[in-house]
UniProtKB/TrEMBL annotation, chain A:
Residue ranges of the region described as Disordered: 16-43
Keyword Transcription in annotation: yes
A Pfam family it matches: RNA_pol_A_bac
Alphabetic keyword roster: DNA-directed RNA polymerase, Nucleus, Transcription
Gene: POLR1C
SMART domains the UniProt entry points to: RPOLD
Ranges annotated as biased composition (Basic residues): 20-31
Sample GO molecular function, one term: protein dimerization activity
Protein name per UniProt: DNA-directed RNA polymerases I and III subunit RPAC1
Species per Swiss-Prot/TrEMBL record: Halocaridina rubra (Hawaiian red shrimp)
InterPro entries: DNA-dir_RNA_pol_insert (IPR011262), DNA-dir_RNA_pol_RpoA/D/Rpb3 (IPR011263), RBP11-like (IPR036603), RNAP_Rpo3/Rpb3/RPAC1 (IPR022842), RNAPI/III_AC40 (IPR033901), RNApol_insert_sf (IPR036643), Rpo3/RPB3_RNA_Pol_subunit (IPR050518)
From TrEMBL, chain B:
GO molecular function: DNA binding; DNA-directed RNA polymerase activity; metal ion binding; ribonucleoside binding
Domain RNA polymerase Rpb2: 192-370, 448-512, 549-610, 631-665, 1056-1141
Its job: DNA-dependent RNA polymerase catalyzes the transcription of DNA into RNA using the four ribonucleoside triphosphates as substrates.
Keywords, comma-separated and alphabetical: DNA-directed RNA polymerase, Metal-binding, Nucleotidyltransferase, Nucleus, Transcription, Transferase, Zinc
Subcellular localization(s) per the UniProt record: Nucleus
Protein's GO biological process: transcription by RNA polymerase III
Principal localisation: nucleus
Gene transcribed to yield this protein: POLR3B
Protein's UniProt name: DNA-directed RNA polymerase subunit beta
């Protein structure tokens, strides 16, 4: 471990003065998972992983690489979302365009990896590139509601149109490949519209595969990272000052330890949890006691899924896209060399 | 009234115990709760409604009573007498004698007037019979929404309002004339019937009184000229020495005159010259004086009726009725008027050498606001008088005829002439031209169309005050903020530019009084020791202790104990014996007590403070919160009272409890109420530079959002809606009070205050594309298309046929492209997208609409020509609704609501609530934007250069407040002169692990590295303004040309050219770019090849000179068509322009 650090001062972020020369390091690490002990001091640690959230530490990698993955997640990892809506009837209060826009933003359970990107000039909806949904719902008076009922949700049936009423309509050979459960919206309680008795919505919607840079509805999830914070106490902080210091950081960052001589001394227990609020600088008497730094070669990457892809699948896809990009580059280089040689 | 009052008349505060003073006054928590209680009772537009109610229920009866009898000059037995008048409930006359109840929304949709019939009970003579008839309509009165006669005033709950398709938050107070919502703006003017001493242009002093009664309006001046005093009036050709006027009024002795004016040495010496002049003119008796004046009366040029009067009679009439018309003269008893005149003279004398006694015209106590009710009453009286005059004229003609066929029935005639009053009122309100013949008054722009851009703009319009002052004059006085406007008029809300300071807005708690009956007040005055002036000789007036008592500018009497009178009046008012809107204050310099009960005074409630203790205690507030007390109870209990500007300036008002001193008489209810509706939206306005608040007041009215709960039922010409509106995270008390939270206009956008790209210079903002994808700033523009299908005199009528079909190759039929949108009924179908130039309503009109008497046969085969309603303008538009109805003329009306959804694009305008507007400079992909440790990406990036020069600290505070509100899940307050303290907000940020200054550690979205600076980052409430690029962009290569000049048309709406103006032309001349000039000014504009005959110099045609009858010397040149046109126009007025052609190069 070396000191690729930035210092968080009161008013600005600076490079660490102690920084040693030759900071450019870290080779391309294509294969990451399970590559715990990289040959050149790089390592990847999965801190937490579930289908929705994921937290990974990248140690010793250049930040541009991690950033590239982040950018790919946001812009290039494909998902399915409703793109075209055929409105047959809509007598509800919500406007056609707004309803269509809302439908587009509904995340679907459909795994995009089974689908192809739809050709722009295509006029037919193919089984290989689109998923069809139908929404046909009518709001009626609830015959069983009591006369004195005032709650609109009780008076009328189907007052709320939820994402669960979007019904999958298979195209072509789709019933052979997919289960109906895996084609529904991801959440079945997304409110799409509200209706009053007599209102009717009838529409057909087609979902296609798309990428986040085209429209935010295709984003598979959110991705960001942060540098690992480090707190260094430059002098001993004790007593009331220690308590104050503890309060300036997130809970669990600073511990107060009873020294054998009876002093209560502050001690950094886990800087990782710090939100980097830099609130120490508010207090003149203790702001000299700490040095706040962040390790630029220790990056904590977060992936948060809100689509059919699980958090790790998103990262997986991102890496695949990266590999694809690298391959393209390599082929181009090879082609060029061949071309110039010939 | 007039009963004995329970409780002591002498309030406790007269006997103060010094020991209680030292105790600190406890703060009354939540006393702001009085503000919503006030608004529930009085509301923001209550002044309009109150004033209209007063007119409709009281004043209209007085007007009819005053003009109740119509007689005939021909037939002495004939008379028509109005017994009673009523304004009924609004209805619609569907056809003859079929009426239907109407609701305001129906009138809006069907383009009809929301009005009610005016019914009278009449007693009249038909032949020899006296007839009494009830419920005779004489016209229709437009009804103000939510006034006592409006159907909405009966609605108690929102659901009842919903049945009428009305929004519960809609304030009402406007009229619906032919489907348009019209507001009668509050008109500000100088008070009538009050003396005002001022310096004229030459530095001389005058005392001016504008008298105004129901019949007359006149202006009387007393001026000083060469040390002598004169009366000036525009019915007199010359200034009349004031002593002569006194003598004409019967005050013939010089001693009496001097006694009335004042017996102080200073006053006597300066008046001596005037007495002398009178003697020099040999005027000693009343008759002499009247003769003198009678000779100076300006002769009326026309309209000479009745027997000619002698100059003496004429002068006496003039003095009695026209000069100082508001001072009553009964049986030519001029006592009151002479004292009044003497006082005017005294004021002028006193003002000499003492500039403090010169009155300030801009002082708000000298101002009266005219509201809808009083304006309509002026108009109605005029129309009613004209109605009666017409009736009389007609009666005279018919009864004068010999050999009557049938008996003349006056009521029949009245019923047939209803239009006079109906149209008079309707036209005045719809055009805003107020013409009142008897006052020779003509005013433009009294009404305006209610702006429905946003809820705030509609509400702001209802509180607008228009000043009757020329906009062109460059005087700063009327425009600048007057200290007496405190609490009455919003100090921030005024437009910029020419009408700056002349158009004002009422503050939140301002109420405008309506007239209170003066009779009981006079009675009360006499009861508490005021002596009638008629009983005094005049000498008493000069006594130091004697105070004159005025009521509405008229002298009531005198009193020796002015303090007691004032005290009793105030106690009576607090006990509810007299109206709460009667104001009384002593003026020690004038030695007068002024009581006012007239309408149009600005007033405002205050908490009464007695013996250093506010009358309102926490106990009262608790009861108020529990609903046991209402605001009116606070008034009745004497805890709170209304003060008008004059009395406010005679009171000692503490702002807060801690500022209460022994002298304190009142306390403010809440300081934020000095702001108006629009300024009330701004969070922390007291931390902003003042002009920024003014800018926001103007911009809040352009913000898109929600108009009302009934917005989807409206078919307006233009209506903007924001799709997903937020309520602001940092709100104010005003926001809660005016229900802005229910009808918001804006979004809480996460803003990073940093520089990005360079597309953010000059206040441009960067927007996150993903935010736009998710619906940020998305808006819907509604427009309407309408047409009426008319029938014509020659039995033809318009028609709306179905689409024109074309036959395809395969034999099928398909509508032509233009008609693709149409249903078979010729009207575009609901839900259809319409492209530009496609037809919305396929209307056709008969080519001949005139009645032709010659040929009956041709009328059979009617030819039609297309007059369709086409969708112009950019972008597709969807048909949302189609309405078919009939308009008041009985024609079929087709209205269509069209909708267009827009997402923000580069160039669209956004603004925060701090006058910080900016256009979108760049839309950036989300991955390129910076992000924080928590993975938050901004919706917007704002350049920090917007802050230093604007000094909008309130915006910084709003950001902090919103951030902590979002983190804590609770809304914060940014109320003016209060709000959540920034320290609390910062501490909350720290609790949630954020930097206490709101600055976050951000990573660059492009390089991935940490940014070198901490970025001020958090949500701010942003408004989308109505100015959008789509409505403004314009370019043209070729296009339509004007018929006359053949030059390109002007303006975007006509797809016009882009003008190369004079200054641009000058530039090109300066550069010597002659070919470019030629191209811009001629070739690209109106080049025209013309044949010129070089022998005669005139224009020829196709190589032939018609003048010379030869083609020998004709050559073709290219000139601007406008030039050719000029030559021909000159020829048509006998000027011959001749062209001489020469070879350019030879």
């Amino acid at each position: 471990m070396d000191s690729n650090r930035i210092v968080m001062e009161e008013f600005q972020v600076t490079e660490d003065a102690k920084k040693k020369g030759g900071s450019t390091k870290g080779k391309k690490a294509k294969e990451k998972k399970g590559d715990e002990s990289g040959s050149s001091g790089t390592s990847v640690k999965i801190i937490h992983m579930d289908p929705v959230n994921m937290e990974i530490d990248f140690i010793g990698f250049p930040i541009s690489l991690i950033n590239a993955y982040r950018r790919i997640v946001l812009a290039e990892v494909a998902t399915m979302a409703i793109e075209k809506v055929y409105m047959y009837n809509n007598t509800s209060i919500i406007q056609d365009e707004v309803l269509a826009h809302r439908l587009g933003l509904v995340p679907l359970k459909v795994d995009p990896r089974y689908f192809e990107f739809r050709n722009k000039d295509e006029t037919e909806w193919g089984a290989q590139d689109s998923v069809k949904y139908e929404l046909k719902i009518k709001c009626e008076k609830n015959p069983r509601a009591s006369e004195h009922e005032t709650d609109c949700d009780v008076i009328s049936l189907n007052r709320k149109v939820l994402s669960s009423s979007l019904k999958w309509v298979p195209i072509g050979n789709q019933p052979d490949i997919f289960q109906p459960e895996s084609m529904q919206p991801l959440h079945d309680d997304i409110l799409l519209a509200k209706m009053n008795p007599g209102h009717l919505i009838h529409l057909e919607a087609y979902a296609v595969k798309g990428i986040g840079s085209d429209h935010a509805k295709f984003q598979p999830g959110l991705c960001w990272y942060r540098f690992l914070p480090e707190i260094e106490l430059t002098r001993e902080v004790e007593g009331l000052e220690a308590e104050l210091l503890q309060k300036c950081f997130s809970p669990g960052v600073i511990n107060i330890v009873d020294k054998p001589d009876g002093k209560k001394v502050a001690e950094v227990s886990d800087a990782r949890n710090d939100t980097c609020s830099r609130n120490v600088f508010e207090y003149d008497d203790i702001k000299d006691s700490v040095k706040l730094t962040r390790k630029t070669d220790h990056v904590i990457l977060y992936v948060e899924s809100h689509s059919a892809l699980k958090s790790f699948e998103i990262l997986d896809e991102a890496v695949n896209i990266m590999i694809g990009k690298c391959d393209t580059l390599l082929t181009e280089i090879e082609n060029h060399i061949e071309g110039s040689a010939a | 009234m007039g009963e004995t009052v329970p409780g002591n008349l002498v309030p406790e505060w007269s006997t103060l115990d010094p020991s209680t003073i030292s105790e600190p006054v406890k703060n009354i928590e939540d006393k702001w709760k009085l503000v919503p209680a006030f608004l529930r009772v009085k509301g923001l537009v209550k002044q309009h409604i109150d004033s209209f109610n007063y007119f409709i229920n009281v004043d209209i009866k007085n007007i009819v009573k005053a003009n109740s009898k119509v007689t005939s000059d021909v037939e002495p037995l004939f008379y028509v007498k109005y017994k009673n008048v009523r304004v009924e409930n609004p209805n619609i006359e569907e056809s003859l004698n079929i009426t239907d109840k109407s609701s305001p929304h129906e009138c809006r949709l069907r383009d009809i007037t929301y009005s009610a019939p005016i019914m009278v009970d009449v007693e009249y003579m038909r032949g020899d019979h006296r007839i009494f008839r009830k419920d005779i309509p004489i016209g229709r009165m437009p009804i103000m929404l939510r006034s006592s006669n409006c159907v909405l005033s009966q609605c108690r709950t929102p659901s009842e309002l919903a049945k009428h398709n009305e929004c519960p938050h809609d304030p009402g107070g406007y009229f619906i004339i032919k489907g348009q919502e019209k507001v009668i703006l509050i008109q500000e003017q100088l008070s009538k019937n009050r003396m005002i001493v001022e310096e004229d242009k030459k530095g001389g002093l005058t005392c001016q009184v504008t008298s105004s009664t129901h019949e007359k309006k006149s202006r009387t001046n007393v001026t000083m000229k060469n040390g002598k005093y004169y009366l000036k009036h525009n019915t007199l050709t010359d200034d009349v020495p004031i002593c002569i006027v006194f003598k004409a009024m019967g005050v013939t002795s010089d001693q009496e005159i001097v006694q009335m004016i004042g017996t102080e040495d200073r006053i006597m010496t300066s008046f001596a010259a005037s007495l002398e002049e009178c003697a020099r003119l040999n005027v000693y008796t009343q008759t002499q004086a009247l003769k003198y004046i009678g000779n100076k009366v300006r002769q009326k040029r026309f309209y000479d009726r009745g027997p000619k009067k002698t100059p003496v009679d004429e002068a006496r009439d003039l003095l009695a009725t026209t000069i100082l018309a508001h001072v009553p003269v009964e049986k030519f008893n001029f006592k009151m008027k002479s004292i009044y005149l003497a006082l005017m003279a005294r004021r002028v004398i006193e003002a000499q050498g003492d500039t403090r006694t010169v009155d300030d015209r801009d002082y708000y106590g000298n101002k009266r606001l005219e509201l809808a009710g009083s304006l309509i009453s002026l108009l109605f009286e005029d129309l009613f008088k004209k109605f009666n005059a017409d009736l009389k004229k007609n009666t005279d003609i018919i009864l004068g005829k010999k050999g009557k066929v049938s008996q003349f029935d006056a009521v029949q005639y009245m019923q047939s002439r209803q239009d006079a009053i109906t149209n008079g009122l309707e036209v005045a309100i719809s055009t805003g031209n107020w013409t009142i013949k008897r006052f020779k008054m003509e005013r433009q722009g009294v009404t305006q169309v209610l702006s429905r851009l946003s809820y705030i703009s509609a509400l702001g319009m209802m509180t607008r005050v228009n000043s009757q002052f020329e906009k062109t004059r460059k005087v700063s006085g009327p425009r600048s903020l007057q200290p007496s406007q405190w609490g009455m008029v919003c100090p921030s809300d005024t437009p910029e530019g020419e009408s700056c300071g002349l158009v004002k807005n009422l503050a939140l708690m301002t109420h405008i009084t309506t007239e209170v009956d003066p009779e009981p007040i006079i009675k009360l005055a006499f009861n508490c020791g005021v002596e009638d002036i008629n009983l005094l000789s005049g000498e008493e007036l000069s006594n130091r202790d004697v105070f004159l008592v005025f009521l509405n500018g008229n002298i009531v009497g005198v009193t020796r104990e002015h303090r007691r009178v004032v005290r009793i009046f105030r106690a009576m008012r607090r006990n509810g014996v007299i109206s709460g809107f009667v104001s009384i204050y002593p003026h020690n310099k004038h030695r007068c007590i002024y009581i006012s009960s007239d309408g149009g005074r600005l007033c405002r409630p205050y908490i009464i403070v007695e013996s250093c203790r506010p009358a309102v205690t926490e106990h009262h507030i608790k009861q108020l919160m529990r609903g046991l007390l209402s605001f009116d109870d606070f008034l009745h209990k004497g805890l709170v009272e209304y003060l008008d500007v004059n009395e406010e300036n005679d009171s000692n008002i503490a702002m807060y409890e801690r500022e209460i001193e022994p002298k304190t008489t009142h306390m403010e209810i809440e300081p934020f109420t000095i702001l108006g509706v629009c300024a009330g939206l701004i969070p922390y306005p007291h931390h902003n530079q003042s002009p920024r608040n003014t800018y926001q007041c103007a911009m809040g009215k352009q913000a898109m959002g929600t108009i009302g709960y009934n917005q989807r039922n409206r078919i307006d010409t233009l209506l903007y809606n924001l799709v997903y509106t937020h309520r602001p995270l940092v709100k104010t008390r005003t926001i809660e009070l005016i229900n802005f939270e229910h009808l918001p206009a804006g979004h809480n956008a996460v803003v990073a205050v940093m520089s990005y790209s360079g597309y953010d210079i000059e206040d441009a903002i960067i927007i996150n594309k993903a935010s736009l994808d998710r619906g940020y700033g998305r808006c819907i523009v509604y427009r309407n298309a309408k047409c009426s299908v008319k029938s014509y005199a020659n039995q033809t009528s318009d028609r709306v046929p179905g689409p024109v079909m074309q036959v395809l190759d395969n034999g099928k039929q398909k509508p032509i492209w233009k008609h693709e949108t149409l249903d078979s009924d010729g009207i575009a179908a609901v839900g259809t997208p319409v492209q530009p130039r496609q037809v919305l309503i396929n209307k056709q009109m008969p080519t001949v609409t005139q009645m032709s008497f010659t040929d009956e046969q041709t009328a059979r085969q009617v030819e039609f020509r297309d007059t369709p309603v086409i969708h112009k303008g950019p972008g597709n538009i969807y048909v949302e609704k189609v309405l078919l109805s009939t308009d008041p003329e009985g024609c079929n009306l087709i209205k269509m609501l069209l909708r267009q959804t827009r997402r923000p694009e580069i160039g669209d305008k956004f603004s925060s609530r701090h006058g910080q507007k900016g256009v979108t400079g760049l839309i950036v992909q989300q991955e390129n934007l910076p992000f924080s440790d928590q993975g938050i990406y901004p919706d917007m990036i704002m350049n920090p250069h917007g802050f230093p020069s604007r000094m909008t600290v309130g915006k910084l505070m709003e950001l902090l407040g919103s951030k902590s509100a979002a983190l804590a899940g609770s809304l914060k307050y940014g109320t003016a002169f209060g709000g959540t303290p920034v320290k609390d907000i910062m501490e909350e940020l720290v609790r949630h692990g954020y930097n206490y200054q709101g600055k976050d550690f951000l990573y660059s979205g492009t390089t991935g590295e940490a940014l070198k600076a901490y970025i001020f980052f958090g949500p701010v409430y942003y408004q989308k303004l109505k100015h959008m690029v789509m409505d403004k962009m314009h370019a043209r290569s070729r296009g339509p040309r004007a018929v006359l000049t053949r030059q390109p048309t002007e303006g975007r709406a006509r797809d016009g050219g882009l003008r190369l103006g004079e200054m641009e032309r000058d530039c090109l001349i300066g550069h010597g770019a002659s070919m470019l000039l030629l191209e811009r000014l001629m070739i690209s504009s109106d080049a025209f090849d013309v044949d010129v005959c070089n022998s005669c110099g005139l224009l020829g045609y196709s190589g032939w000179c018609h003048y010379c009858r030869s083609s020998a010397n004709v050559s073709s040149i290219r000139i601007p068509y406008a030039c050719k046109l000029l030559f021909q126009e000159l020829q048509s007025m006998n000027i011959v322009p001749r062209l001489r052609l020469e070879n350019y190069c030879s």
